[in-house]
Structures are given as C-alpha cells and as structure tokens.
Amino acid sequence: MAEGKVSFELVSPERLLLSEEVDMVVVPGEEGDFGVLTRHTPLISTLRPGVIQVHNGVAVSESIFVAGGFAEVTPARCTVLAEEAVAVGEIDRAATEQRLSDARDDLLDAKDDAEKASAERRIAVAEAMLQAAA
C-alpha cells in the first residue's frame, strides 16, 4: 500500500465494484457522512442512501450512489458492502422517477406495517438517488 493511502473496496451483492488505493473516501453513514483516511480509528457503521465520494489528490475521482449497507473501517482499509450501488453518472433519471412513483403507489396500497415500511424505504432510496443525480 502506498504511503498515505487507504485501501478502499466497494462490494455489491453481484460483484466487487471498486478496489483501489485512495487518498480519502467519504461514506454516507447512518449517523452522518464520515471521511476515512489512512490510520483511521476502527469502526463499523450502517449506511443510509447517499453518495460515496472517492478522493484522489484534491479532487473527487468517483461518486457512487449506494442504497444502504455497511462499512467496516480499519487503520489501513475501508470496505463497503452495499445493498445496491451505481455510479452517479449512470443514474437513469426517468427510471428512478418511475421507481419513486411505483414505491409511492405501493405505500398507498400497503395492507400492513411491513408493507408500509418496505415502501417507505424504497421511497427514501429513490428520493436520495434523484438528489444524487441532480
């Protein structure tokens, strides 16, 4: 590992999406965004829907939307296990708007608390995805 770099891996249920040495990664934790640099204090965090920003040098080299998941941080590594991940530049706005509309319809048709909670979660993900694409 290069001096001053942190090893970052982003994994979705389908595949390893990214594995590289970076200067910093900013992750959308459930309690708020957190940045990871080399020698970070170990932690495990759940993720909220939002954008992971990968920094190389002073610029953001990649922005990736995640729908949720977990992050594990050690002094040398940050591993994100994402429920769903897509590069911000690849978000299909029309498809995401349809996804939001469908989730809102499902919320109106929900017959119990579990269906309601599921629809509310899908609404939150779609809204965050649209915000990321803006």
Fold blueprint:
Blueprint: E1 6-11, E2 16-22, E3 24-29, E4 32-36, E5 43-47, E6 50-56, E7 59-66, E8 69-73, E9 77-82, E10 85-87, H1 93-109, H2 113-133
Helix pairs in contact: 1-2
Helix content: 25-40%
* Mean pLDDT across all amino acids: 93
- The proportion of strand residues reads 35-45%
The CATH C-level name of the largest domain is: Mainly Beta
CATH superfamily of the largest domain: F0F1 ATP synthase delta/epsilon subunit, N-terminal
The tally of structural domains comes to 2
- What distance lies between the first and last C-alpha atoms, to the nearest angstrom? 35 Å
Report the CATH topology name of the largest domain: ATP Synthase, domain 1
In the CATH hierarchy, the architecture of the largest domain is: Sandwich
Which segments are poorly predicted (pLDDT under 50) over 5 or more consecutive residues? Answer: none
Shape: elongated
